[in-house]
Design a protein that fits this description.
Elements lengths: L1 E9 L2 E7 L4 E5 L6 H11 L15 E9 L5 H7 L6 E9 L3 E5 L2 E2 L2 H8 L3 E4 L13 H5 L5 H36 L1 H12 L7 H13 L1 H16 L5 H13 L5 H30 L4 H21 L3 H19 L1 H46 L7 E6 L21 E6 L7 E2 H4 L2 H15 L7 E5 L7 H15 L3 E5 L3 H6 L2 E10 L2 E8 L2 H13 L5 H12 L2
Parallel strand pairs: 3-13, 3-14, 8-12, 12-13
Antiparallel strand pairs: 1-2, 1-4, 4-5, 5-6, 6-7, 9-10, 10-11, 14-15
């Protein structure tokens, strides 16, 4: 849940500090007072993009911060980002003309990382989100589970198979497209292949040769330095054995002072390290061998490699890759039919693997869609949509042509549509064609309520999800949001008195004019203030006795 929101110099908000409670909090106020700005600031804390236009006129920066309860599902993510795991999560967004800074528990992070964190904290429904029900591209996001190991395994298999298929497809396409070109430049390709193969390249060969040339070119200097180093370690003036003797003397008196024991250990370490270094230097001296022919060959080989790097404008790694490519091109020219057949067989195998992975993913989704349809219909009954029928329809996929790669999308082959009927006896139609604004709002609320069962979030924010409804339907929407608030914290912007009356807490957002500047302010409404606000929502600015009594009744019956 969100415990606290602090906003400074954001749009018409000058300085705002709101502490939120558990349960359902409703936000009401006149249009333009800044209710949606509150949601905008929470959206920023959950990964929305910032813009310098958000900064209050005349100010150099805007700061938005919030305190959220910690969610243990974030443990691995916080560890990977080196963010301290505390009882709460403090998120800070600082917006200036030149940069947008993000901190979580005082650690700087990226916007991408913030979005990953936000997925475990909250979900925000803004007014335009309802239109996702009219956008078929969004439908799989309603169906696909957020945390399901079986589904994740199927999706991973599909993605791996898709990668292999795309790779095989590219090779076959390249073979077909490049056959003519390969025949024309066959002699040139053979020359390049012979030249690069003659270098016997492997990754790191140029670094090895540079090291060898440097070592052999400085043989005298290396030999002289090694001998001097050995003599220094082996001379009587700096006997390594004296380190050992000193350590033993200190060992005898260690019981009298703990520092003596520490000195003894360090001297023994120095003795063993020095002895090892001396032995290794002696071994290096014995193995010193200068061979002028070896130096000449290394220099010659390095020169050849450097010439090839300059000629082809490639690194050693790129030359190796280029050799593989031109070898394939030569094979295409000389053995086109055989190479094409081999690669087409590989493409067919990868296509079959991808097809099987796609079918399994579709079958799993179809099983999930049955449960989804039933659950959404049940949710709709609570929202005055008693006669609702819902069916998830899947596209037909033709797997006859292994070259038809357009059927394979990043998340599978499935394109779905929600077919719905809101009235008994009426046929099913695509929801985008038959749902009114009020029906769409209620369907979206039904989806939100259902998806909470597949999520670890502790906060749901609704920005006027009740648009387009009134009367008893408004009361049912209010009840639905109130029931959601029994599971997780709910913040709700509303213009409906039935919804406002259901809130455990009621925040009134209003505008002040101070020193000629407009600024957003708020206050928690209690008792009579809350009754008056709900009565105003019922009857307008002129509050009647009837409206006051109705408001009292709504609150008492919440």
């Amino acid at each position: 849940m969100i415990r606290e929101l602090n906003v400074k110099d954001f749009a018409i908000i000058e300085d705002l500090n709101i502490n939120f409670n558990l349960g359902m909090t409703v936000l009401t106020g006149e249009t333009g007072a800044g209710k949606s700005l509150i949601i905008d600031t929470i959206s920023l804390l959950l990964g929305a993009r910032a813009d310098s236009d958000m900064i209050r006129y005349g100010k150099s920066k805007a700061i938005v911060s919030g305190i959220f309860d910690y969610n243990e599902s974030l443990n691995d993510l916080f560890d990977s980002l080196s963010i301290p795991k505390l009882d709460t999560i403090k998120i800070v967004r600082e917006i200036t003309e030149s940069r947008n800074a993000i901190k979580v528990n005082d650690i700087n992070i990226t916007l991408t990382s913030l979005k990953q964190i936000a997925k475990r904290l909250a979900d925000i429904h803004v007014q335009n989100d309802t239109y996702k029900l009219f956008n078929q591209d969004e439908y799989l996001s309603f169906l696909d589970p957020k945390s399901d190991k079986a589904f994740d395994k199927l999706m991973d298999s599909y993605i791996k198979a898709l990668y292999e298929y795309n790779n095989s497809y590219s090779i076959v396409t390249k073979i077909k497209n490049n056959q003519k070109n390969a025949n024309l430049k066959l002699d040139f390709l053979k020359y390049e292949k012979e030249e690069i193969e003659g270098l016997d390249l492997y990754i790191g060969i140029d670094d090895e040769l540079n090291e060898k040339v440097s070592r052999l070119s400085n043989f005298d200097k290396i030999s002289n330095s090694l001998n001097q180093a050995y003599e220094s370690l082996n001379s009587e003036m700096s006997s390594i054995d004296s380190l050992y003797d000193a350590a033993k003397y200190l060992e005898e008196i260690k019981e009298y002072d703990k520092d003596f024991s520490d000195y003894s250990s360090k001297l023994l370490d120095s003795y063993y390290i020095s002895s090892e270094i001396k032995d290794n230097i002696a071994k290096a001296i014995r193995n010193l061998d200068f061979d002028q022919d070896e130096l000449n060959l290394a220099i010659e080989k390095l020169n050849e490699i450097n010439k090839a790097k300059d000629k082809y404008k490639m690194s050693v790694e790129e030359l190796i890759k280029h050799l593989e490519e031109i070898t394939l091109e030569i094979d295409m020219a000389l053995n086109y039919d055989e190479v094409l057949k081999e690669k087409e067989n590989e493409l067919k195998k990868s296509f079959e693997r991808l097809k099987n992975a796609s079918i399994k993913l579709t079958e799993y989704r179809k099983k999930k869609s049955i449960g989804l349809s039933k659950a959404i219909v049940d949710e709709c009954k609570d929202l005055d949509l008693d006669s609702t029928r819902l069916e998830v329809k899947f596209n037909e996929v033709n797997y006859d042509d292994m070259y038809n790669k357009s059927i394979f999308l990043d998340n599978g082959v499935d394109q779905i549509d929600f077919y719905v009927s809101f009235n008994s006896g009426e046929p099913l139609h695509s929801i985008s064609k038959v749902a009114s604004g009020g029906e769409a709002s209620r369907m979206m609320l039904a989806f939100k309520s259902y998806l909470l069962n597949d999520n670890s979030i502790s906060l749901e924010v609704f920005d006027e999800i009740d648009t387009g409804v009134s009367g008893k339907t408004a009361l049912k929407i209010a009840n639905k949001m109130y029931n959601i608030s029994k599971k997780i914290q709910v913040l709700c912007i509303t213009h409906l008195p039935q919804v406002a009356a259901k809130g455990d807490s009621h925040i009134y957002i209003y505008k002040d004019l101070v020193d000629g500047r407009t600024k957003t302010n708020f206050k928690y409404l209690e008792n009579n203030e809350r009754i008056e606000e709900i009565a105003k929502m019922l009857s307008g600015d002129s509050i009647s006795i009837y409206a006051l009594e109705h408001a009292k009744e709504l609150i008492q019956n919440r």
